[in-house]
Amino acid sequence: MKGRQLHLFGGDNNKKMAHKRQSIILPLDTLILISIVIILLLTLAFSLGVEKGRKIAYATIGKDVKAKTHKKDNLQSELDAIISSVPDEILEQVATQAPQKTVTVVKAVNNVATSNSKKYSIQVASYVKEKPAYAEAKRLKAKGYPVIVSKKGKYMVIYVGNFADKKKARNSMQSLKKRFKDCILRTL
Questions:
Q1: What is the Cα–Cα distance from 97 to 93, expressed in whole angstroms?
Q2: Using an 8 Å Cβ cutoff, are 109 and 143 in contact?
Q3: Other Cβ atoms within 10 Å of 179 Cβ, number
């Protein structure tokens, strides 16, 4: 009887029992709780990584914008230095001897200045198929709107106008919203 009782409590020196693996037995609620904690920790680590990546990306974009602004300021200061270094008499001679050339140069400078400014367009619709997109573009052209149809990925996107002023673009967008409810103002 003594041997049986020891066998029930693992006290006998049986070789079969000696070779069995030790296992950890966890209640189901503890296992679920541990799983939830691990999932929360992984989610937290992921979100912190995304936030850190976003900060790095914004820092990189900020450096690019600052570099472009600095380059533009340097070009403007160089141009100002060149113009200020030319004596006034020479500038007057050039203006009197070749007024058409001066006007042409001024127009070219104005074109460069306006090309650097933002242009606005209104996205009125996008279609998966080309045929309905071009049909809608034709209707808009018939109403007098300047229309651009552009392929973006698998979509054909219809843009209206090429506005230099944001207020004019918004005013035109209000009239287009009667026909197209989801108009979007885009910069070109």
A1: 6
A2: no
A3: 13
Q: How far apart (Å, rounded) are the C-alpha atoms in residues 177 and 72?
A: 38
Q: What is the DSSP letter of 122?
A: E
Residue 114 and residue 164 in contact, taking contact as beta carbons nearer than 8 Å: yes
Domains of the chain listed by start with CATH number: 86-115 (no CATH), 118-187 (3.30.70.1070)
Q: Cα–Cα distance between 105 and 99 in angstroms, integer? A: 10
> What pLDDT is attached to residue 102?
46
The mean pLDDT of the chain is 76
Residue 123's alpha-carbon distances to 7, 29, 91, 137, 188, in angstroms, are 83, 55, 46, 12, 11
Q: Is 121 strand, coil or helix?
A: strand
Give every CB contact of residue 162 below 8 A, 6+ residues apart in sequence. Answer: 119, 120, 121, 146, 148, 188
Highest mean pLDDT: which range of 109-113, 116-120, 152-156: 152-156
43, pLDDT greater than 80: yes
pLDDT confidence of 132, banded at 50, 70, 90? very high
